[in-house]
């Protein structure tokens, strides 16, 4: 690799980390305030969490059109459109608050889903930035570090701006969400990622249905779905369960803060662990930690049980999701990346959307203990498939 190529790689990764830090701050704003604003604007208490669920649904539905745009016009143009949509979504949501219009506010959070889908694909852009397969896991891990910064920026923006416009509480936070997306635009404009594969390469690409039937894709997608889906489901249910067990709202918020920090802090070394021990082993370790979080939650309802389970869940998500993303890079050729990544994210974030709609009802039906017990068989299934895949891969290697 030449000096110029190395410099371009560092530049692209730095820009992606910064863009991730700004773009990743939007979901905490929407998730922390969406229910409160919904409660304030909606005449139906049951619909108060609808804005948050619609954001998750908008993200899931946007993965496919966003990927199509990336494939046709390149990642930079798609990311610029995503950030512009992030600006628009914040303005529409704030306008909905100022007009006391619940439907308009929901439209704003739904539009934010397209920006969210683009931000989620920054980790795939990192693999394009480095090129070499042996260094892709480290690049993914580096970009995910932006999530650690976002975990600080998002909640702080809420604290600083939620009462900045006394006549319209919370509107200031959504104007700030728009401002963060606006700040991301020049960073994304400066990206210089490799162009989409030429049409001649694309013509030789396999059909998506053919790729989706391969064991490699099925394993990577399932590991991603289980890692992210369970994390989102349990993170959504945990604050309600904590308050229901007599803990304060502040204690529940602190538990979520530690959980989010645990989600992203391991990214400092996850890439190196994958390079040292392999994608399958680190993905499996993440799933084991998610199972351990469920086991700890079943041991009691004290504050230490909740907080400890949330920290384990965060670290487990980091290993499991970054490992699954790295596994996905094995499934496709360069001309197939966009559609394979889109299908994977549609499955992952579609699951998250379903979890967002159903977590409250399931918590009410089976309780916190039932939720944690019910996720263990899903983790066991993916662990069994990872073990089989590792054994098969080892058996395929020639003896030395």
UniProtKB/TrEMBL annotation:
Xref: Pfam families: MFS_1
Protein source organism: Pulveribacter suum
UniProt-listed Gene3D superfamilies: MFS general substrate transporter like domains
Membrane spanning stretches: 12-33, 53-70, 77-96, 102-125, 137-160, 172-191, 217-236, 256-274, 281-300, 306-328, 340-359, 371-391
Name of this chain's protein: MFS transporter
PANTHER family, alphabetized: MAJOR FACILITATOR SUPERFAMILY PROTEIN, MFS PERMEASE
A molecular-function term among this protein's GO annotations: transmembrane transporter activity
Keywords assigned: Membrane, Transmembrane, Transmembrane helix
All residue ranges annotated as the Major facilitator superfamily (MFS) profile domain in the record: 216-400
PROSITE patterns per the UniProt record, alphabetical: MFS
